[in-house]
Design goal:
By secondary structure, this protein is of the alpha+beta class. Helices cover 49% and strands 11% of the residues. The chain is built from seven helices and six strands, in the order ββαβββααβαααα. The strands form two sheets. A four-stranded mixed beta sheet has the order 2-1-4-3, covered by helices on one side. The chain has a two-stranded antiparallel sheet with strand order 5-6. Strand 1 and strand 2 form a beta hairpin. Helix 2 packs antiparallel against helix 3 and helix 2 packs parallel to helix 4.
Amino acid sequence: MSRTTFFEVEVLDAKTREQLCFLDKVEPFSTIGEIKNLFHKSYPQWYPARQALKLDPKGKPLRDDEILQNLPVGTTATVYFRDLGPQLGWTMVFLAEYLGPLLTYLLFYFRVPYIYSHKYTFTSSSHPAVTVACACHTLHYVKRLIETIFVHRFSHGTMPLRTIIKNCAYYWGFSAWLAYYINHPLYTPPSYGDLQVHYALFIFVVCELGNFSIHLNLNSIKGDGSRSRRFPIPTKNPFTWLFFFVSCPNYTYEVGAWVSFSVMTQCLPVALYTLLGFIQMTIWAKGKHRTYSREFKDYPSLRMAIIPLIL
């Protein structure tokens, strides 16, 4: 009968190299997540989500599902700890990021006191484009909130509090900037009037439906109970057919929605926000596309990252 070989794990501070904890008789099949739990018992202030454990002080953090005996270490392993700071779960992150823009925009739409001149307090714009824009902006963020609560599946991952503050400042700040000009009493409606607004509204609704359909598709892949990873493919839903051409159609539809919103409002701050969003989503899409291409040998060669046949 074979004996189990236990491991010893030494946890050092990544900055000072000071020993923080020494764990003995650790099971060889223990995961990094379980080691974090053991470390947490010695240091309650550093709950697992705050911990980054590395084999090298300047290396990448180990994943929670990595198994101790599969790491390039001996029976005495040395890992380096870094405090990631206070964390929040992804559901709370997205609720904070999306609820703010929704409410902020409405404050400007209803022209609450101290935003514009006193004589415009609680007045409404005479331009239909302003009302349509408010409905579209509200729909967009209500959809995001619904997806956060009922559609998206989050792992146990978290985001640092300082990053959340930065992201909220971005979303809330831009929402206020857009709303200020679109709902301003001196706002100039689009050059081509209702025709421009109606065409843009049609494209906006199509893109929002497309974005929602893609999120449902991605959710079904994560929730089908299969342990093997697979890449998303088109379904009978026509909105998912964009998967034939791009790896991240959710970003394609998202950009399309904001482009149509820019045309609908003919507002420069909206166009700038759309451009910045497109740049960031392109970075995310290209990263996802590279991951798919590297991980799956049969990945469709026709697919681009975010714009069919181009990018």
